[in-house]
Amino acid sequence: MKRLEQDYRETLDDLRFSDEAKERMMKNITEQKEHNPAKRRGIRPLRAGLIAAALCLALVGTAMAANPEAVDWLIARLTVQVEDDGYHVGGGQMTKYPLDEFSPALIGASEGRDGPGVVQLSFDTWDEVRAFIGKDIPVIWPNGGRGWDKPIYVDLYHVETDQLWGIHINSISISRQAEVDIEVRTEHWRGEEASSGYGIAEGSVEAMESYSMANGCVAEMVKYLGSEEHPEAACTGHFVKNGILYNVSALGTTAAQEEMADSLKNLLDSFE
Predict the structure, then answer these.
(1) What pTM was estimated for this model as a whole?
(2) pLDDT score, position 186
């Protein structure tokens, strides 16, 4: 965890935020890693949304049976719940990939770990990450990784189960003012649905319109705006493809909200 905090601090130093803003972002990143958003309280609107979706599916069952692509779209669809202290994204069925579909290098790193915790690795290119994950895992990156700044971090999670249950991929591109965060699950994961979110100490969060991406996915977009005193901002899109959760952010300031939203849409459309 200390290595990740240091790396994020060094990366944020090159972004166009004040020192105080970077410190708050670091605090939020650290807290988000330490607390599972799925355990946050007050999820009734999310549950209601899922019930409504289930009822809708029951009412149009015959039509859905004739259109399996529509069923896949509904299963993968995420629901956003905005709260006073941030937001939560849930829904979307996650795929539990068998361990034998991952690369021997990844399995070797998992089995050779010290203790039951997290294995932390970094790579210079997406091609290296792709080879490390394994060709049978359909994970994707903007523009296939072309022109993305290094490094890209990969974390292997074993906490609680002492078996590899999750792979986390993350990187910030300074040149693009963007961040990509990916969650992959293995057969040893105990959950079922995707879960993400972000907590805030100040500012506001606003759910944006859903966005139909060029690759056929639908991203649920959320906007964070800092306070007048600390005007950092971010637009984040969440989507599920092949049972893998993607959290994609365009970073900026409150004065450039429209440009930031356009940047996010362009970034989402670059997932091939």
Answers:
(1) 0.75
(2) 98
